[in-house]
């Protein structure tokens, strides 16, 4: 009788576990840029399987092209011994004098086969200390923040050459394309501003004061609002894109770095990294409708990069101090999986399975 009870209990537990797993089943592929060991990790969520591959740069950010056929990665060459501080930005050297800047090594934009990370399809120039990369809606052009050049470098991926540069505020870092593809919002860390770039004329159309040390931006799907993480204010600024003015500021965790609006436009996820001596391990969840903080999720030490699945069901966060990626269920606001990746993961991107 006792054996029968144990068997029934085991069966009930197994069924409950299967139900929980099925209701939060993860699909797709996530890629993390690991600065600590010059690698990119590929997480097959359905398996789950993690594969980590060395690359010839210190990758700070990765981005999937819209068609899912190429993975873009930016960073300084490994041979240059690039270093990044624990605030998630490349260290800022003293101003170059004369032609000293020309002698410094430039960073690279890698075009990688997302199915075979050891196959680099192209290595392109990306300016001095590239930080982030996004593409236009067609995936033809890549926009790279060249932090030390105070500019965005525009690369034609197909032609494999730089086709333009656009001056920004001081030390541009994170950037995102507006949903209609007409504007780029660029967070200028040392300028306390966001540059608005017209993608047709490749000029800076405006510069919006937002707050101290803006790091990354994110748009609502209708393009009417942009959210900007303010690292040194522990806030997220909300920008009305029509008036190009800050309409509110929302308190979040310590030293927020990346910010991401889920595709259905309901929530904003903000990774709070903290400092090197006192890392934070939280993600702030903002309700878009109310404009209020609705929840805080504990992930891992040094929460940094954020991306969402295309169905808005899951959010993925890199934890720089724990060498992990956390998966958050956006319905329950709970961590449902943790993946061990390369050292000091920073940028992150998602590829849907088609």
Automatic annotation (TrEMBL):
Top-level taxon of the source organism: Bacteria
Pfam hit, one: Lactonase
Secretion signal span: none
Membrane-spanning intervals of the chain: none
InterPro entries, per the entry: Host-pathogen_enzymatic-act (IPR051200), Lactonase_7-beta_prop (IPR019405), N2O_reductase_N (IPR011045), WD40/YVTN_repeat-like_dom_sf (IPR015943), YVTN_b-propeller_repeat (IPR011964)
UniProt name for this protein: YncE family protein
Source species of the chain: Trinickia dabaoshanensis
Classification lineage: Bacteria, Pseudomonadati, Pseudomonadota, Betaproteobacteria, Burkholderiales
């Amino acid at each position: 009788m006792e054996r029968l009870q144990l068997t029934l209990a085991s069966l009930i537990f197994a069924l409950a576990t299967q139900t929980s797993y099925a209701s939060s089943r993860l699909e797709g592929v996530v890629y993390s840029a690991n600065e600590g060991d010059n690698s990119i990790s590929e997480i097959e969520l359905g398996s789950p399987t993690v594969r980590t591959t060395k690359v010839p740069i210190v990758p700070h950010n990765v981005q999937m092209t819209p068609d899912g056929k190429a993975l873009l990665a930016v960073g300084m060459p490994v041979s240059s011994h690039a270093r990044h501080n624990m605030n998630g930005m490349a260290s800022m050297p003293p101003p170059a004098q004369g032609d000293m800047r020309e002698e410094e090594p430039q960073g690279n934009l890698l075009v990688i086969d997302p199915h075979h990370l050891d196959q680099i399809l192209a290595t392109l120039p990306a300016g001095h200390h590239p930080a982030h990369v996004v593409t236009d809606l067609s995936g033809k052009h890549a926009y790279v923040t060249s932090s030390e050049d105070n500019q965005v470098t525009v690369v034609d991926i197909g032609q494999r050459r730089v086709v333009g540069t656009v001056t920004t505020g001081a030390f541009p870092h994170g950037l995102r394309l507006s949903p209609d593809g007409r504007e780029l919002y660029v967070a200028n860390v040392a300028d306390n501003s966001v540059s608005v770039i017209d993608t047709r004329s490749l000029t800076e159309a405006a510069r919006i004061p937002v707050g101290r040390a803006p790091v990354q931006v994110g748009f609502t799907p209708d393009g009417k609002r942009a959210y900007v993480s303010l690292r040194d204010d522990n806030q997220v600024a909300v920008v009305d894109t029509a008036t190009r003015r800050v309409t509110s500021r929302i308190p979040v965790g310590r030293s927020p770095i990346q910010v991401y609006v889920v595709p259905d436009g309901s929530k904003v996820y903000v990774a709070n990294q903290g400092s090197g001596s006192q890392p934070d391990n939280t993600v702030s969840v903002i309700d878009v409708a109310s404009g209020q903080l609705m929840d805080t999720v504990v992930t891992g030490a040094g929460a940094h990069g954020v991306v969402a699945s295309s169905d808005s069901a899951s959010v993925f966060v890199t934890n720089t101090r724990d060498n992990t990626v956390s998966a958050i269920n956006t319905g329950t606001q709970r961590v449902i999986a943790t993946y061990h990746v390369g050292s000091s993961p920073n940028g992150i991107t998602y590829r849907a399975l088609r």
